[in-house]
Structures are given as C-alpha cells and as structure tokens.
Amino acid sequence: MGKTMIMKIMERASGKEVKVGDRVWCNIDWSTARDFGGANCALQFDEITNNEGRVWDPDRIAFTFDLQAPSHSEKVSNNQKIIREFARRQGITHVFDINHGIGQHVLLEHGLVKPGDVILGTDSHMNLLGGVAAFATGVGNTDIAASWLNGTNWFRVPETMKIEVRGEFQRGVSMRDFLTMLVGDLGAGGMDFLAVEFTGESIERASLSERITLCSMVTEMSGKIGLILPNGPVLEWLANRAGPEVYARVSAIAPDGDAPYIDVRRYDVSALEPMASCPDAPDNVRPVREIAGTSVDQVHIGSCTNGRYEDISAAFEVLKLSGFKISPNVRTIITPATREVMLQAAREGMIEKFLEAGVVFTNPTCALCTAEHYGALPSGDIGCSTTNRNFIGKVGKGSHTYLMSPMSAMATAVRGVITDPRDILCQGGN
Amino acid sequence: MGRTFAEKALGRAAGHPVSANEVVTVEPDFCMSHDNTGPISRTFNKIGVKKVWKPERIVVILDHGVPAPSSDHAVNHKEAREFMHNQRAPHFYDVASSGGVCHQKFCEEGFALPGQIVIGSDSHTCTYGAFGTFATGIGRTEMAAAWATGAIWFKVPESFRIDVTGRFNENVTAKDFILKVMGDVKSDGADYMSVEFHGDGISGMSIAERMTLCNLGIEMGAKNAVCEPDQRVLDFIKGREKSNDWEILWADSDAVYARELSYDLSSIVPGVAKPHTVDNYALVESERGVHIDQAFIGTCTNGRLEDLHAAAGILKGHKVAVRTIVIPASWEVYRAALHDGTLETLIDAGCIICNSGCGPCLGAHMGTLAPGETCISTANRNFKGRMGDKESFIYLASPLTVAASALKGEISDPREALKG
Amino acid sequence: MSEILKGRAWVFGDDVDTDLIYHNKYLAETDPKNMPQYSFEYYPGHENFAREVKPGDFVVAGKNFGCGSSREHAVYCLKEAGVPVILAETCSRIYYRNAINNGYPVLFVKGISEAIKARRINDGDMLEVELETGTIRDITSGQTYHGDAVSDLEREIMSAGGLIPYLKAQKKQG
Question: Residue A323 maps to which CATH number?
Fold first, then answer.
C-alpha cells in the first residue's frame, strides 16, 4: 500500500519505514523558539545540562521575536535577553530579533524552510509551514530543550485526512472564508491528531499566502499538520529562496496514488460566501451576512494567519472602494507579518493611504494575538480580527471577538458595523 | 520697570498687571491630559459637578500605551473615551492615525498658541513654550479641579534668562545644547522659575529645535520654559490654530531676572546625560565605547521629522548593530517620513518603526529594558529604572549621536560616523 | 503498586483552551512554581480554582482539553498545584505531548464528556482513581469510568519521569 505525505516525511526524517500509529524518532531539521517559550527552553536546557551542555547543532536552531516586539514588560524583556545570551553562548546565529516579524514567516522568507523538513517551534501555529509541505509543529519547551540535546524527537505517525477543494472564489470571498467554513464544519476537534492533505484545483491555483492561511488554522481543528505540495509559482518562489533542492524534496514526499486516507472530504468554493467565527470559539461559524450590522469597537488585521502582503492588499482594495475612509467609531489596527511585508506595503504607497484613512499601522509582530500586545480590549468591547483565536477573554477579560477575512474586517472598519465586503466590492463603493 | 514673559502672560490671563511672587487665579485656555484621563475623570466625578466648565477647552490625547498593550490600559482608554463622549468634549484623540505623542500632537493641532495659558497633566507640557505659550504641568487632582471650576492658581514665577548666540557646528543639535545647559543648571537650578530663551541663537532655530529646548525645562525644575514667538511660529500655527484669542507676548528688555546665563552655540559639542540623572552631563567624546543594547529615537523631545532625517542621514546604506527602535512623535511625522522615504531608509538599516506614541520612554511599552541592559535614547529622562528594570541604564543624546551609536553598538561620536 | 488516588473533582466542559487554563497575560513567567496562581483565572465559574484547589484534587474535562497554544505553562500550572492527573475525554495533541514530556499523566476517559453535560459528574464529587488500570470511581454518584492506557513509548517516557530523564537514561544505555 502507498504512503501519504506525512508518512514519507517521517520516513525521511526517521530513516526507516513507518506505518500509521508507529511512534518514531525523527531527525529535526529546525528546532526553533520564540520570545514566548524561548527563555523557558534555554533555562531548561541549561538546567538539564548543568550549564555545560552544547546544543546538538547551532546551525539547526533559530530564534524569532514576535510575541512582544518590542517588549512592553520587564519580564518579557528579560526573557528576550536570556534568549540572546543563550544564542551567543551556543554560537546560534539564526537570531531574528524584534525588527523582523512573525517567526514562521521570517523563516520562510529567509529560505530556511524546505518541503519535507521537520520543524519544531514554541508556537502552536508553526504548522502553517505545512503550506510548503514542511512538517512543522508547535510543542512545549520540554520538547524543544530535549531536541537540542540530540536533534531528534518522537512523533506518532498520524492518519491522514484528504480535503479536495474545487471551484473559484467569488469576489469578496477568500481562502480565509473557506477556512472559517471548514473550522465550522469540522469543529474544534475535527482533525484530532490527524495530518491533512489539501488538494484539488483550488489549492493548486492558490498563492503562497492563501496556502499559509489555510494551513495556519489546522491547529484550531486539533490537527497535527495540514500539508500542501508546492507547485507552480509557489514552488518557483521556494526554489528562489531555499535553493533548487526543493524540487527533489517535492518529488520525494509526493503522496502515492494508493495512499491510505482515513477520510476524504470534497468542497466546492464557488458558492461560498464571507464567513465569520463568532464569539467565543473559532468553530462558532456563521455567514458574515447573518451577523451584519453588529457594531464593533476595534478592527485588527494581521497575525500569522492573515498578515501577509496579499491580505493587506485585499483590505486595501476594500478601503479604496470606500474612498479611504474608516468609521470614526472604530479603532482600526493593521500589523504586517514581517518587515518584508511592511516594506512592500510602504513602497507601494499603501501605508500612506491607510494612515490617511485613520488606520494605526504597527511594526511587524503578533500584536493582540499573543501576550497582551497592541490592541488589547477593555471589558465590554467587541473586536473584529483576522487572527485565529477568539477564546473567551483572550484579548481582554469581558471582551468578545469575531474572526473574519481581511476583506470582511476592512469592510467592518469602514462601516463601523460588521459588514459583508461584497456590499462594498460588488456595488462599486461605499 | 519691564515685565518678564511670565508676568505678561499671567497678567493677561488675570486681567490685570502682575509681578513675580504674586498669587493669581486664571482661566486656562486649554487643559491637556492623556492616558491618565480615566483616573482624573474619577476624581472629577467625586467633586460633585456634572459637567466640565468648558468642554471645548479639554484636550485628551491617548499616547502612553497605544494601541493598548494590556487590558488594563484598554480599560483606561475606554474610561477616557466615555468621559469625553459624555461631556460632549470634541478634542479627543483616540487610537487612530490622527494621534501621536500628546505634546507633539497638541502643537500640530494648533492648541499651543502665543500668550495663552495651558495646563497639562504631564510634566513635559512645558514643551509648548516653543510657541510662546505659558504652559505648565500639573497633577491629576488639580486637573480634575480645573475641569470643574475653569480656574487655576499660580504664584507668578521668577524668571531665568538664558541668552543664546551663534550657530551650531555641523552634527551638533539643540539636544546637545540643552543637555549642556542641564549639566550647568542642574535638576533644581530653575526650580519654580520661568525659563526664557533669548537671542539670535534661538531665532535661528527651527520650531522642532525650540520644542526640544522647552521640553527639558521641567528637568531643571522650571514651571515653564519659553522661546520668543516669531514669524516661524506664526507660519506654523497659521491654519492650525484652535482659538483666536491669542497674542504675541514677550519679555521687556528691562525685565528683572532671578538668574541669567549665556551661551554661544558654536562652542557646543555632542553631549550625553549619563545614568541616572538628566544633569549628569558628559561629552560624547569621553563616553565613546560604552556598550549599548538598544537605541531609541523618538518621544516628545526628539521624535520629529528633522530628528528622523538626522538619524537617517547617518544610517542610510548601513546596518545597525543593536536593536534600534524608531517611533515618530506623531502620525503627521510618520506620514511625512513615510512619504519622503525616510522610514524606508530606516527599515532598510534594520530599525524597527513603531506606531506613534510614547514608546519605551516610560518603560511600559515598545522596548522595555531587561536587567543590566543599556539604552541610548533621544528622550528626556534617564532616571533609574525609567525604561524598565531598575538595574538598567539610560544615556540621553541627540538623534545623531543615537544613530551613530546604533551603528557601532557602543556610544559613538556622530562627527566621526559621518566622516567614516 | 496499584496506588489509589483520592480527591475532589473540578469539572470543566469540552474544548477548554489554553487561555482558559493559563492566560496569555502571564506567559512571561518562566518558573513553574509561580504558575498555579493563574490557573483557570479566565474560566467562567471557576475563577476561584487557583485559590481553592487542594493538592490531590482532579481536573475532569470533556473533549479536546488544552486546545490552542503550545504553552507548557498550561501543564505546569496544574502539575505544580498538585493536581495528580487530568481526566478528559480527549486532549489536544500539544497539551498531551507537554504532559507526557513532564511525566504528568492524562487519562482519556470514554463517556466523560457526556457525563459532564448530563451532570452525572459534578464539582466537588469525591473520586478514586487507579492510574495503573485507568479505573475512576465517583464515590459521590456511584458511577465508574475507564481511562485509556497510553502506548508503550509514552508509558516509557512517563515512567522515566518525562522526556528529559528518558533521553538521559537512553544516552547512558546507548
């Protein structure tokens, strides 16, 4: 019987044949940590090695700073310092300090991620790197510190679910809406412990940003990893950044035609409409149309799920058709995912227009999605955000958040109430 | 006998001539507060008055923690938002690209006007003296009382005259000058006084430079600091002014001063304030080589367009060696720097450009220091623990010196950076 | 060998996310001993957990316990509070790894989610838990539940006391 993509990845990483359910020790290509959890990893590593240990390979470890960049508390500053000093001591040079942006995106931009890689990180959304067929997973500090000892870690070879997507999005509808629909359809536990392969014509056509968006919320369905085999322009981009060996990697991990899937689901996106996750859970999903008119206090566009150039650009399009005006009753914050994204937005004149409209444009970071950074909400406020979690009180006790696409979020910022972006995009303006 | 600026401004507000040491009660032209508006409003509510005396005179600009870095900050903001809404007070600058550091924004919006009286619940309110305004910082309780009554009492201050002649040499700035003055006058040398900057050295300075000077008035203990309002001020406020009731006032040439000093700007060289006091002056030359972990360019002292230009001039085409945080003082500054490519230059050099606000200046946002860390900053205070951990160190310097130091990772002289 | 643990139940629903267990507000904490004070601060109805939990009490939850973030804090805060084992219908994969890696037992208990919804198991119920067999007796209600045993590798890691001691032992052997 054939092998699924995750099985092939784990075979490469473990050097032996695997079957579903096996516990295998995999060689780690990158063991990363960020300013959240990173200090815990460093302190733990020092503790278990009596401050004398050397990491197995300093060139396979990377640190990123995005939790609070720049930090606003002494504790986080100190954690960041612990990481910098640990890196210096261990000869780790891949340190992407507070001026870079969200970790996974930074690793990708720097050409450090290849299809088939096994990557650990202290971020439960590491698995967005499945968008380029890397097996990247969020783990706790013990897993990271342990992997630094000898460059391996254990995994259960998961069953694989296949999701085939066809059809073209209508204007005003995006991959995020499909993703939101999917989270609603499968539920918070819908991919429990599974690997997922996304295939079909809509996926083959999808841009890198769309693929990243789609894979980023596998976590919200309790999946292990969502994988998309790079092809076309995405593969070219990757080869450009990470080197020509990505071609061979892609061939090596392509799933077999007779690979075993525990479940195959088919979706057609051509009739899909803008969707939202309502308070207080990502899988509490309704069409934006049905909640339109709900007033909001703050709109935030950004995060590892939807903070890339295309996302900002999609929001820009909505703002443009609205005459570059947002509602004065809504605080609107845009946070680019990386410095590269920010520079591109600056060079194309977008940031200027956002500012003209009243939007607050921040430096690249995780912003409100993590430890109380830009855009925390007071009790009683309603937020609208392109982030990936809206758990109770996540961005402030007593506040509630709707999750939606960048287009829906900007339409909401423009009108001051939750708005279906098609109301603006398909009627030629506000 | 002639009158000082403070005597004239307070006399105008009181409606009769006044002299130093007299106590007068005046009506403020504007009352400025920031994120502390929430607590002030709570005190106000205790007074038992429902409405503020004149809602159009209350100016609230959120800047200390924007966007809110914690739900506690967010709750504070919400309180300010609701207070201003309920009072139907129109001058509210919320978390939006219309805001910025309160002092910068206050001036850009045309609230700082010659001859007017401004009180602010922030010690650096004295910055507005750059426009010939009598502006002074007060506490929260006093602000609540002023909102309720529209009255505030002052002892008319004695005045301190600083005569300034000449021009700066290249790579020397108003910040270097005011740090030198701080070193001479010390932190209590102008206690309760009104500091007046006179002379052709001042009239040759830009508005931004004058704001830098007046901004540090409080660090000498002054009640207010002021420069003679001239054509540059008139040009700046034209089209911005939020009130018509202003008047150019300046000290008479035979006014009486409690203290006088004079400086020639051509003798000023790059300087720093060493930890942990603003008056701990030293020449950059003598501090060269001190290791730094962070560089910060921004704040109400030095976060204006020409400050960013100065930094970009040094950083262009190079990479910073330490984390370098740049925070334009307002969104107006941000947009101008974005438009002319300055921000791009700074990003390319590895700087991190944050949204406008106070940033790490007071240790609660965007770049707090860890124990043992050293920051070189363009801000106005280097008190122990001001930017974070109590075991951290702050050097204050000009944007040029900060940029030059950022390149090397140690305190460096901008005159050499530009050479090499 | 087959020790029987006895304690009170603290009952939670399905999909208890890591922000509810340990809010992101306190992520900067690095010392596990300081973490229990923040446990369940944001969980509606159990805000008092941190103050009132006693060593030996059990956390009983429905499906997908610990979904969300990778923060190990969410394991430490309960382990350090003296909660000897998590009893949940299922738990998220990262939470599960983090627990195993710390030698902290999680029992997957069939039917517990339904029992919680039907109020057959309630806050304050006295439970007896036999880790070896996975048997859970609710003394208060008289109901019995069964928790799933874990696979060999996880058992080995657990019995070594967690991933780090396990790896160290492996190194010595090999």
Answer: 3.30.499.10
